[in-house]
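Quick log. Single chain, no ligands specified.
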Amino acid sequence: MKILVTGSTGHLGEAICRTLQQQGIDFIGLDIKEGPLTTNIGSIADRAFVQQMTQGVDYILHTATLHKPHVATHTKQDFVEVNITGTLNLLEEAKANGCKGFIFTSTTSTFGDILTPAPNEPAVWVTEDTVPVPKNIYGVTKTAAEDLCQLFYRNHGLPCIILKTSRFFPEEDDNKHSREAYEDLNIKANEFLHRRVDIEDVVSAHLLAIEKAASLGFQKYIISATSPFTRAHLADLQNDAPSVVRTIYPEFEALYKTKKWKMFPSIGRVYVNEKARKELGWQPKHDFGYVLSCLKKDQDFRSSITHQIGSKGYHEETFEDGPFPVENNE
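-> predicted structure:
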């Protein structure tokens, strides 16, 4: 089996390549930047380059993308060329070369404005059936790429699995208020309740998608840590999140106190991974319960591969007001 991994210098791409290397699986690591496991330098927007790279490939794991951090620094056309044209190039060559499956790394950011309820509304229960409300060019182009995947399954029978991942980046939060109000690890620990996933678990979802691609055909899955919340919690999560967490994890406050951490006062969304657990057989290790068990033992809750890869950033330059510039309406 030979696998093409796009975006192999990025967080997820490198994590996947490291895992494939450990398992003795042949892979090509493709990126526009050099990296420890990147074997070929080039752009997915270059059709001739993509054609060359897909020769003899059984599966494509497409993680390369322009991300939300690029919205303020790149043009909308840049996003179209990389996220849409690049994906189309890969799909066309996957079809032409008889690839057995195409695994597309998408994002929960595609849901856009639906993720932010009004103050008097309950938190949003986010599943694969949630209808997105476009917010920025990142979400729009990733949604378009998802649709291209569905089209190639419908018209050409190419098995395509879309993995809509939640936050797994190690960089600090882009929200200035959050950075000032909470320690970085405090934010990340809280997010395991509703909107974060460890990169080790994201890698395992991608490898399972390879195994199941032929039988599943076309499917979308939310890849986020298993949340302890139910629909019955949604109204209270918006009004008083700490009280809800307290009912499920009575020990959390004492453990947080030792770190001088605090819970978010309000949680506005809950990502639901039930479909991925049921159909992919995905069993994510890292959730809020795991975080608390690590706090009890005074251990870091982040996986070893998170530390191995470290923080990469998204730009060559640094910015004064945060990890990357944020446009107010996006």
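The chain has one domain: 2-309.
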